[in-house]
């Protein structure tokens, strides 16, 4: 009888411990954030641009540490002026014959998906992620429009990759504060634009854009946690 009682008690404690461990991990996370992007257009006639924006993400967790995340961010920028002095070198090596000035606006949107590794227990909850997807920007279309007189470019959409991580501060079972997330952002608007023949200017091929982004916001958890 004692052995049976001990067996039943041990089994009950094991099941309770397992349920508690499983209950500590939320099934879903929904976040809203402010985001800053240090966007490098990768052209020596365009300056690096600081973009302010924001967005959100949705994460589905599987087990104690692994999750799958969908992340959506958008950034806008104000108009700014640029000047190409006579003798400026374009990305393909061509040298401008006369000064060129103008103004343009650039924005950036990213849509990425991928795995997240996160510690879901305790007050401090660090995480890391690798996300792949797509990006959209009107920067290049505006450049071509202002410099070449073209109305559009065929490289407004490109590949995007986000690699980085951050830390969450757990306030209660449903709310965590995200003071910092820092990511390397790679975009690849890799296509060739052929300017109008009347301009006499050569084709220009885009390259990779190596940028940085910072996020801060709040994360809401559902379907678990204590």
Descriptive labels:
12 strands; 2 helices; 226 residues; two-stranded antiparallel ribbon; mainly beta
What would you note in describing this structure?
By secondary structure, the chain is mostly beta strands. The protein has helices spanning 2-23, 139-148, and strands at 28-39, 49-62, 66-76, 80-84, 100-104, 108-118, 124-136, 157-170, 175-188, 192-193, 204-205, 208-222. The protein starts with a helix and ends with a strand.
Summary of the model, kept short:
The protein has about 230 residues and is mostly beta strands. About 15% of the residues lie in helices and about 50% in strands. β6 (about 110-120) and β7 form a beta hairpin.
Chart the SSEs and their pairings:
Layout: H1 2-23, E1 28-39, E2 49-62, E3 66-76, E4 80-84, E5 100-104, E6 108-118, E7 124-136, H2 139-148, E8 157-170, E9 175-188, E10 192-193, E11 204-205, E12 208-222
Antiparallel strand pairs: 1-2, 1-12, 2-3, 3-6, 4-5, 6-7, 7-8, 8-9, 9-12, 10-11
């Amino acid at each position: 009888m004692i052995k049976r009682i001990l067996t039943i008690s041990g089994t009950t404690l094991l099941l309770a411990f397992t349920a508690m461990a499983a209950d500590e991990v939320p099934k879903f996370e929904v976040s809203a954030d402010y985001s800053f992007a240090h966007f490098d257009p990768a052209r020596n006639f365009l300056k690096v641009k600081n973009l302010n924006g924001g967005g959100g993400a949705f994460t589905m967790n599987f087990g104690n540490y692994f999750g799958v995340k969908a992340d959506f961010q958008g950034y806008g920028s104000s108009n700014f002026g640029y000047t190409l002095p006579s003798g400026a070198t374009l990305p393909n090596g061509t040298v401008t014959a006369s000064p060129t000035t103008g103004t343009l606006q650039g924005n950036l949107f990213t849509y990425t998906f991928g795995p997240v590794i996160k510690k879901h227990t305790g007050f401090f909850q660090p995480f890391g992620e690798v996300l792949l997807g797509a990006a959209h920007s009107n920067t290049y279309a505006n450049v071509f429009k202002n410099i070449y007189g073209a109305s559009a470019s065929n490289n407004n959409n490109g590949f995007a990759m986000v690699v980085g991580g951050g830390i969450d501060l757990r306030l209660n079972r449903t709310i965590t504060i995200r003071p910092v997330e820092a990511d390397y952002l790679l975009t690849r608007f890799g296509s060739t634009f052929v300017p109008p023949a009347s301009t006499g200017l050569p084709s220009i091929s885009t390259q990779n854009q190596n940028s940085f982004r910072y996020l801060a916001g709040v994360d809401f958890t559902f379907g678990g946690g204590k």
